[in-house]
């Protein structure tokens, strides 16, 4: 090819022959390839680039891992500090609760202000006994047969009642006040019944259906003054109760300072006069047709020591609505209270409670919603106990 180009003497711009241009281009290319091959081949350049990338990525990963480990250590420290702070707060909370309880007991024990009963079913020492829970069975002068139906079924009597307090820390009393004419026939009948059974808690309270909110308030204050309990329970005298199941439920919440346990509901505010459960202060709940705030149904509920103490300390300024269960719920509005909706506290009578027991979900309490208690409880309490009771030995074999 060089000969061909040599035979041609064509001139390019500037007077330089084409063959010399070609010769120079080929020479430069050959020299460049030679230099590259001698110094670093193309595959080597590619490999070097990949190594550099891997090295850079490796350094970045090490740096990121170090940052993650450092952040993890910092998070662990923060969690430890939060846990320690929570423990300190809980300790202070318990200390404050204990001080409030002591204050309530001191106030309740003062001579002229004391809500202490004249008789409590046993001599009380100056120091309140520590117990698991106190159960107050709200009753009336006319309910002697109801009380007997309970004594013959789910409530221990005599020495067994004392043993229940000593071995299990469970205190049970029928709760009643006095008549408008203190010392009259009605009061003397309760005195005689008390002498026989020793299972009453007598209140400084005038009995009356429309005074249930006041009676409930005084019951908690009186119970707090007599017993240092973890929980305080209120139950009506036409409800069937399984004590072992109640104890198991309450034991779940021992670590919580302010709990309100019951079957939570929110029924209508009844503004029409003359109807059952009429609420004279219906206007406080907004427009007609509104519902109450959530509160436990009145047949049975339990509150922790702090809440019972709160009622005792503030009982003179707590407002009382027409319905006792609404009143109790209103006292906890605005407080840091945990509402526990426990449906086993409001089972129906047979066959409802019977089916649940067979399914492994024993009921803690049974009654008929249509009667706000067991319909014809005097006649039916034994039947309910036989079909839905947990067994007379259950409470004794339970570990709380």
Explain the layout of strands and helices.
Blueprint (H helix, E strand, L loop, with lengths): L1 H5 L11 H22 L2 H67 L21 E9 L5 H8 L7 H10 L1 E9 L6 H13 L2 E7 L5 H15 L1 E9 L3 E2 L1 H9 L7 E7 L29 E10 H10 L9 H8 L6 E4 L10 H7 L6 E2 L10 H12 L5 H4 L3
Helix pairs in contact: 3-7, 3-9, 4-12, 7-9, 7-10
Account of the 3D structure:
The strands form two sheets. Strands 3-2-1-4-7-6-8 form a seven-stranded mixed sheet, with helices on both faces. The chain has a two-stranded antiparallel sheet with strand order 5-9. It has 13 helices and nine strands. α6 (185-197) links the parallel β2 and β3 (200-206). The chain is of the alpha/beta class and 400 residues long. 48% of the residues lie in helices and 15% in strands. The model is unreliable at 1-46 and 111-125 (pLDDT under 50). It is a single-pass type II membrane protein. It is an enzyme of class 2 (transferase).
Largest sheet: 7 strands, mixed
Determine the strand fraction and express it as a percent band.
Answer: 5-15%
Give the strand line-up of the largest sheet: 3-2-1-4-7-6-8
Count of helical stretches:
13
Q: Order of SSEs, N→C?
A: HHHEHHEHEHEEHEEHHEHEHH
Given the helix and strand composition, which structural class is it? alpha/beta
* Overall average pLDDT: 80
Instruction: Name the helicity range.
Output: 40-55%
Rounded to an integer, what's the Rg over CA atoms? 42 Å
List keywords for this structure.
13 helices, 400 residues, alpha/beta, seven-stranded mixed beta sheet, 48% helix, single chain, 15% strand, disordered N terminus
């Amino acid at each position: 090819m060089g000969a061909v180009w040599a035979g041609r003497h064509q001139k390019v711009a500037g007077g330089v022959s084409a063959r010399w241009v070609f010769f120079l281009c080929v020479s430069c290319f050959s020299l460049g390839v030679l230099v590259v091959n001698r110094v670093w081949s193309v595959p080597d350049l590619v490999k070097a680039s990949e190594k550099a990338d891997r090295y850079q990525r490796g350094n970045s990963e090490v740096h990121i891992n170090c940052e993650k480990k450092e952040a993890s250590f910092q998070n662990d420290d923060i969690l430890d500090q939060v846990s320690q702070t929570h423990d300190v707060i809980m300790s202070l909370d318990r200390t404050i609760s204990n001080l409030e309880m002591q204050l309530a007991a001191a106030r309740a024990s003062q001579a002229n202000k004391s809500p202490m009963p004249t008789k409590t079913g046993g001599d009380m020492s100056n120091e309140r006994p520590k117990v698991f829970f106190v159960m107050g069975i709200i009753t009336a002068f006319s309910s002697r047969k109801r009380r007997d139906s309970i004594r013959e079924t789910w409530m221990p009597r005599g020495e067994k009642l004392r043993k229940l307090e000593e071995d299990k820390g469970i205190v049970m009393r029928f709760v009643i006040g006095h008549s408008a004419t203190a010392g009259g026939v009605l009061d003397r009948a309760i005195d005689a019944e008390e002498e026989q059974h020793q299972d009453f808690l007598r209140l400084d309270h005038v009995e009356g259906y429309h005074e249930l909110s006041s009676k409930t308030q005084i019951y908690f204050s009186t119970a707090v003054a007599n017993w240092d309990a973890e929980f305080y329970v209120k139950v009506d005298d036409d409800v069937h109760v399984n004590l072992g199941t109640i104890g198991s439920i309450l034991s779940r919440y021992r670590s919580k300072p302010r709990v309100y346990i019951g079957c939570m509901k929110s029924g209508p505010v009844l503004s029409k006069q003359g109807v059952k459960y009429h609420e004279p202060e219906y206007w406080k709940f907004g427009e007609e047709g509104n519902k109450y705030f959530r509160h436990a149904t009145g047949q049975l509920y339990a509150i922790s020591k702090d809440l019972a103490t709160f009622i005792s300390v503030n009982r003179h300024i707590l407002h009382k609505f027409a319905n006792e269960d609404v009143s109790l719920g209103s006292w906890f509005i605005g407080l840091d209270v945990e509402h526990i909706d426990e449906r086993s506290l409001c089972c129906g009578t047979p066959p409802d409670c019977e089916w649940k027991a067979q399914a492994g979900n024993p009921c803690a309490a049974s009654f008929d919603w249509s009667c706000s208690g067991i319909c014809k409880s005097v006649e039916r309490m034994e039947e309910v106990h036989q079909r839905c009771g947990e067994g007379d030995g259950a409470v004794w074999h339970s570990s709380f």
